[in-house]
């Protein structure tokens, strides 16, 4: 395959990685050469490399994916010799074991797994756990002192902040936000939610609100229950609580790393209209429209009505 063919494949793979990034891993490439990639790995906190951010390079051959890349780390880690090629089954040390079906994502996952192993190979070094922990603590400052790193990862500070927030979330935060309360180990909250749903279907909205409130006492970050309670408040035209619950559900989803809910945005926008807060309603409708929901035309009409200039004074 020519460099042009390899470049086409690698650009597709970069899009795939950005769309579904492997846990603990980031990747980019040199602007002037698609064959020269850089990666960043931040190993799990329960390893000797926890808290560290390790920069490395992957150099792809012109006939990729039919030949393997060269792989090296740049950041000192106590695991690999900096700027020295690593001998592993996915690298150009072992073309006989290379599989063209492997993607960049597969390679980088393999690199992280190899880093966390104890295997000694060409490019590896032996080091104490205490020294590796020291280097992990020093890695952020070391990376930021390198002009090339800063050019490759200009948003490193934001990237690191997002990763720290992600790791600080409870393991079941996503399950709770989505309303999978049994799976999250909260059977009492799950039962209260189910009761609330039954009351809602029976149009007993006050009782539904009471049951949802009990569920939220056990699972305060449950965006799904907050959305349901907002819907019950809407049936009672309690617009202040509709807006409050819809806004709280959006915050809960964001805190758990869940997608933005178009339904929550639209319910909040409708409440804001009723509360005579047109500017905030316009913002909520615009945010909902950006999600490209199936009812986009109706949202555009609602926006147009809000954006109409007031009639001239008589």
UniProtKB/TrEMBL annotation:
Pfam families: UQ_con. TPR repeats lie at residues 262-295. Residues 5-162 form the UBC core domain. The keyword ATP-binding does not apply. Keywords: TPR repeat. Gene3D superfamilies: Tetratricopeptide repeat domain, Ubiquitin Conjugating Enzyme. This is UBC core domain-containing protein. It comes from Pelagomonas calceolata.
């Amino acid at each position: 395959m020519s460099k042009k063919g390899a470049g086409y494949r690698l650009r597709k793979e970069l899009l795939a990685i950005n769309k579904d990034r492997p846990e603990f891993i980031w990747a980019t490439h040199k602007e002037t050469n698609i064959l020269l990639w850089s990666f960043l790995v931040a190993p799990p906190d329960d390893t000797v490399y926890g808290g560290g951010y390790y920069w490395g390079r992957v150099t792809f051959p012109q006939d990729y994916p039919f030949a393997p890349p060269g792989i090296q780390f740049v950041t000192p880690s106590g695991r690999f010799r900096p700027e020295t090629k690593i001998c592993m089954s996915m690298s150009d040390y072992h073309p006989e074991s290379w599989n063209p079906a492997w993607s960049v994502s597969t390679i980088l996952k393999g690199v992280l797994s190899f880093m966390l192993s104890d295997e000694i190979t060409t490019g590896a070094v032996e080091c104490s756990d205490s020294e590796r922990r020291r280097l992990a603590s020093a890695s952020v400052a070391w990376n930021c002192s390198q002009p090339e790193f800063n050019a490759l990862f200009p948003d490193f500070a934001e990237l690191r902040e997002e990763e720290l927030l992600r790791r600080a979330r409870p393991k079941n935060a996503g399950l709770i936000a989505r309303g999978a309360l049994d799976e999250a180990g909260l059977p009492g909250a799950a039962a209260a939610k189910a009761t609330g749903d039954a009351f809602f279907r029976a149009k007993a909205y006050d009782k539904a609100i009471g049951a949802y409130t009990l569920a939220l006492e056990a699972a305060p970050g449950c965006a799904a229950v907050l959305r349901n309670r907002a819907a019950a408040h809407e049936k009672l035209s309690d617009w202040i609580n509709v807006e409050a619950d819809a806004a709280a559900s959006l915050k809960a989803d964001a805190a758990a790393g869940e997608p933005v809910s178009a339904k929550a945005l639209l319910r909040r926008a409708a409440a804001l209209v009723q509360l005579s807060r047109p500017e905030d309603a316009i913002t909520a409708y615009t945010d909902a429209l950006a999600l490209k929901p199936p009812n986009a035309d109706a949202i555009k009409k609602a926006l147009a009505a809000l954006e109409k200039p007031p009639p001239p004074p008589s």
